Amino acid sequence: MVEYIIIPLIAALVAGTAPFWLRLIWDRVRIDLNLVSVTKGRHPEERADVGDRIMEISKSFRRSPLDLPKEARDRDIQFVRSHAKGVRKEALEQIEFAREMKRRLRHCKENEEKVDFITKLMTSGKLVLEEIIEGLQRRDLVLPKIEDTLRMARYVCQVETVSSGDVDSIVLTRPEGRIDFPVGSQGAKDRIQPLVKAMQTFNKRHLDKCLKYAVKAVRDDRSHADILMSGLEEIASSGPFRVDLMVVNKGKYAAVLNPYAALRVSGGVSRIDPLMLRIENMLDPQNGELEVEVEVDEPSYVSIEPRSTVILTLRSEPVEAHKPIAAAYDKGILRCSVALVRLTNPRAGKYRPKLVETVSKDFGASFDKVMRNQVEDRVRRRTRRRVLNFPARLSPS
């Protein structure tokens, strides 16, 4: 009899308090994590220590577009590194070009052959000619003066220096048209007159000396480019990992997060320890001002407002290339997830930490190529299927 009374009472009590419990469950802090991207490298404006040796090589490297300071921006490091890579590739071709021109010089006898020689030097020997011009301007290359006696009678082609605006150029004029080769700012033409006269008169001794100097100069530049590219490659590969994480707080109360997190990685050959991350800034994608960032400079808890969505940027410390996670990232595709610690409501005056983690996703240096191949492969299959299933046109009766 008692049971028949208690059970309805309990049911009525639960029914009466159901809205309270539903509201409590609905209003509690509930966050969803979505791993947006994982990349490796620095921000373009972030600076890195390039070291004394790389700084000195950069300053002595004549082909470098700029001199790197000891603390250089990543965009400048990447720019110089890319330029050094291009010089290294071009240097091999230009060294062989200069050697071939030296061999060809001995056999040039007819005027037409000499004009073709000068034309090819100005059109195909950009780096070789630049080295010769710079050597003359720095006085590393000195050509004996060509006597003016009967010089005009021995001209084989019309080569001269021309000023246009703030730039001087060597100009070769032919029936087919003129060839311009910039040599630098005004005032440079005085020092390159020996080269111009040697080209006008086709002085084999002077031209042979210029080509010999160019081979050595290009070889030195290639050596500098090797050192510079290797050093900057190591600096570039030691950049931090960056994680973009979308956090949605569906609750009525603010979500409090520990500013530190961990990147958990699997899929490498050996065991990879979690990589510590730190929240660097927050971005609010809902206010329409995506470029507005709230920087998180000092160590503090991070608060996510109720009913809001933010994108967190987390970064690790620079990771050296020989570390397991860096080596595994460069070689293949890994699985990763981000683990955060959320602080729950205080009990007895203390916050309780609770671990929350994203679902695992693929990432790695070669992942972009894999994704691109997936799209190309499926589009190709779909196109082929449409072609095969396309109905044949009926011929007119």
What global shape is seen?
A: elongated
**What structural class should be given to the helix and strand makeup?**
alpha+beta
Helix content: 40-55%
Beta-strand content: 25-35%
**Which ranges are low-confidence, i.e. pLDDT below 50, for 5 or more consecutive residues?**
18-27, 288-294
Figure out the total of helices: 9
Return Rg in Å.
35 Å
* Number of β-strand runs: 15
Average pLDDT for all residues: 80
Please characterize this protein's 3D structure.
The chain is α+β, with helices and mostly antiparallel strands and 397 residues long. It folds into 2 domains: 47-236, no CATH class; 240-367, Immunoglobulin-like (Sandwich), CATH 2.60.40. Helix content is 43%, strand content 26%. It contains 9 helices and 15 strands. It has helices spanning 2-27, 51-60, 74-106, 111-124, 126-138, 193-201, 204-237, 324-331, 367-389, and strands at residues 31-40, 47-49, 71-73, 158-164, 167-174, 177-185, 241-249, 255-266, 275-283, 293-295, 302-304, 308-315, 334-343, 353-357, 361-363. Strands 1, 7, 8, 9, 10, 11, 12, 13, 14 and 15 form a 10-stranded antiparallel sheet that branches. The chain has a 3-stranded antiparallel sheet with strand order 4-5-6, with helices on one face. Helix 3 (74-106) packs antiparallel against helix 4. The protein is elongated.
